[in-house]
């Protein structure tokens, strides 16, 4: 593929008829995209506002707003979602909002809705100068486990370096395919894989999310690439195999082995899992043949471990000159592969003993009755205990029904004693159909805690 840098994406010529984005109704061409970016760039240059929040459901208009804000040298703000209260919480970070009508805000901010006009005349901008990527700022938000949004600021040269790496890794595989997605472009994974990389590589992308498993099944095709997450891939329970995708990507959280195997059954291929974060960008990738499949480090990244066995990175997606310390505990396998062992910040001390929440979750998921588990510390009568939210396999549901809650709870504790000290075994459980995730595919402690107020679901 003839992939361009973000710096010269708009300043390099392309055929006017080259497709950019698609819906069931129509295809938007490069000439229309060039026109729409030109028109909005002019408006933003004339505006006094410097920090623009970009809030779109339509990925095409999102791309227009992103590139226009960059060429107007504005600071781009990407809120995690469009809910009025969430936007109000972040309102000190931006001066104005670009949107496509996805929200109704009731706070004092200027807003501009796209499309900015309905003119059918398409005229090109006089000249798009190459972008000084290191001078254009982008702010994203990560919620972590607490749910409190944390602003992460980057410059566009860091994103451009990652696009270059993604294209070097998978560009040939994705050549001439259409990008369909179940994940939001408001977060770094969707931003890169769904919008910016396709734009730079000249790939056609779908304008709207695939929301339901049925849509994911219906979109499968040899000329389509799916950008997805564990949250949706684990919901693909259809037993009927379908047409293969060109490729499937998953990020945002751990992909259950059963979901990887179901993808193999349905689409004749394993998803490419991408490991990383908002702060770090991509770190590594794998196709999960089994749970012990190692992660492959992206070639442009150097890794090392600190004294606690946590991953250190020197990455062009963070800072090419300095090392960045993560909380991800790893086991190196040579110079460019590693195994994840959990996060250091997921170790809690209970009665003077250090307990790894990741280890407890792993042991729960080894049991034939449990599909997924989320374990967290909880205060109970002036002492700290562990609580677990679990989803059950078909066998687990049948066993729970046969044994009853009390005996099933005792059976779980008995099995866990084979690996865990009594203090490290969860004392409280909730069985749910699906572990709640936020829009970034993360588990929030506050959401898990709410489940324990629903007494009817207690095991």
From TrEMBL:
Q: Which InterPro entries match?
A: AMP-bd_C_sf, AMP-dep_synth/lig_dom, ANL_N_sf
Question: Is Ligase a UniProt keyword of this protein?
Answer: yes
Q: Where is the AMP-dependent synthetase/ligase domain?
A: 23-301
User: Which Pfam families does this entry report, sorted A to Z?
Assistant: AMP-binding (PF00501)
Q: Name one GO molecular function term.
A: ligase activity
Keywords on this record? Ligase
Q: What is this protein called?
A: AMP-fatty acid ligase
């Amino acid at each position: 593929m003839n992939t361009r840098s973000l710096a010269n994406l708009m300043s390099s010529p392309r055929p006017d008829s080259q497709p950019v984005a698609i819906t069931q109704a129509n295809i938007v061409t490069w000439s229309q995209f060039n026109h729409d970016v030109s028109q909005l760039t002019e408006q933003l240059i004339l505006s006094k506002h410097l920090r623009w929040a970009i809030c779109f459901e339509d990925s095409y208009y999102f791309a227009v707003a992103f590139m226009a804000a960059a060429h107007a040298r504005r600071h781009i703000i990407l809120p995690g979602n469009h809910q009025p209260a969430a936007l109000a919480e972040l309102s000190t970070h931006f001066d104005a909002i670009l949107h496509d009508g996805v929200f109704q805000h009731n706070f004092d901010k200027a807003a501009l809705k796209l499309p900015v006009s309905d003119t059918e005349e398409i005229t090109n901008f006089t000249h798009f100068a190459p972008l000084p990527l290191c001078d254009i700022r982008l702010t994203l938000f990560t919620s972590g486990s607490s749910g409190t949004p944390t602003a992460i600021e980057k410059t566009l040269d860091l994103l451009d370096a990652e696009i270059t790496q993604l294209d070097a890794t998978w560009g040939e595989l994705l050549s001439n395919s259409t990008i369909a997605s179940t994940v939001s472009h408001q977060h770094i994974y969707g931003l890169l894989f769904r919008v910016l990389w396709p734009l730079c590589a000249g790939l056609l992308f779908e304008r709207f999310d695939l929301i339901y498993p049925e849509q994911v099944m219906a979109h499968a095709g040899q000329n389509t690439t799916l950008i997805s997450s564990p949250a949706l891939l684990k919901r693909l329970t259809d037993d009927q195999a379908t047409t293969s995708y060109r490729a499937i990507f998953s990020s945002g959280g751990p992909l259950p082995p059963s979901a990887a195997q179901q993808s193999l059954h349905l689409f004749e291929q394993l998803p490419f899992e991408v490991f990383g974060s908002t702060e770090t960008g991509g770190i590594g990738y794998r196709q999960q043949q089994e749970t012990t499949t190692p992660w492959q480090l992206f070639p442009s990244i150097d890794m090392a471990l600190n004294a606690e066995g946590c991953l250190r990175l020197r990455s062009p997606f963070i800072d090419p000159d300095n090392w960045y310390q993560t909380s991800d505990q790893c086991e190196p396998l040579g110079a460019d592969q590693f195994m994840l062992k959990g996060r250091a910040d997921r170790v809690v001390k209970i009665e003077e003993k250090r307990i790894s929440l990741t280890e407890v979750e792993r042991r729960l998921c080894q049991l034939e009755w449990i599909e997924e588990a989320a374990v967290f510390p909880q205060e109970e009568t002036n002492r700290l205990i562990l609580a677990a939210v679990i989803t059950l396999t078909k066998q687990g549901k049948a066993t729970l029904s046969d044994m009853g809650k009390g005996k099933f709870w005792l059976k779980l504790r008995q099995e866990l004693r084979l690996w865990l000290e009594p203090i490290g075994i969860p004392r409280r459980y909730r069985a749910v159909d699906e572990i709640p995730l936020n829009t970034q595919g993360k588990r929030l402690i506050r959401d898990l805690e709410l489940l324990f107020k629903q007494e009817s679901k207690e095991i």
